[in-house]
Design goal:
192 residues, alpha/beta, disordered N terminus, globular, 5 helices, single chain, eight-stranded mixed β-sheet
């Protein structure tokens, strides 16, 4: 069976127009781009056996319109998948949201917790646990539609790190935290 994992980021199904470099504004040499492409292709050859979709949902504040539309359009393709939602990964403490939703709550299953803890153990790190009972996130909408979810958040003081605050800027990303969380995410994908 084929496994899929989703997280809000970019949709790999849409490719940029031919001749347009999506990294044109970044100071990347052609050698770096080739090296990164080769690293991603290696995942296909045994490092990971999980199909990954990166999906930028948006519209979370508009009654989760982005995830509702995504589920409606891809419900059949999502059967058997595990959806990973990422928030605030460049700051705060990496946290598994074990319970969320304003009224009708959803909870992370024991299987999901095992995956999360096994990946953390493999890297010698700790993933904290938390709740978001004050909002209906995209993860909440996915869970209400019967799909297993993993909601990982960089948390500070009980909320996603810097979310919606004046200091929520690129310059305030903690690159060491972001790199550690990316390494964790790859290990989690290997674990699933």
């Amino acid at each position: 069976s084929r496994k899929r994992t989703d997280s809000p980021s970019t949709n790999t199904r849409k490719s940029p127009k031919r001749g347009v470099n999506p990294f044109g504004n970044l100071p990347l040499s052609e050698d770096i781009i080739v090296e990164e492409r080769e690293a991603v292709q290696q995942f296909k050859d045994g490092i990971l056996d999980t199909e990954v979709w990166f999906v930028a949902l948006g519209a979370e504040l508009a009654d989760n319109a982005g995830i509702k539309n995504f589920i409606r359009e891809h419900k059949e393709e999502l059967r058997g998948s595990i959806v990973i939602d990422l928030d605030g990964m460049g700051a705060g403490n990496l946290t598994l949201i074990e319970e969320e939703g304003k009224v009708r709550r959803i909870k992370a299953s024991a299987r999901i917790k095992r995956y999360v803890n096994k990946a953390a153990s493999a890297l010698g790190m700790r993933v904290e646990s938390g709740k978001m009972n004050w909002r209906n996130s995209a993860t909440y909408m996915i869970g209400r539609n019967g799909l297993p979810t993993i909601h990982l958040v960089g948390m500070e003081n009980g909320t996603p790190a810097r979310a919606g605050k004046a200091d929520d800027t690129f310059e305030n990303l903690d690159l060491a935290v972001l790199e550690q969380n990316c390494d964790y995410l790859v290990e989690l994908l290997r674990t699933i």
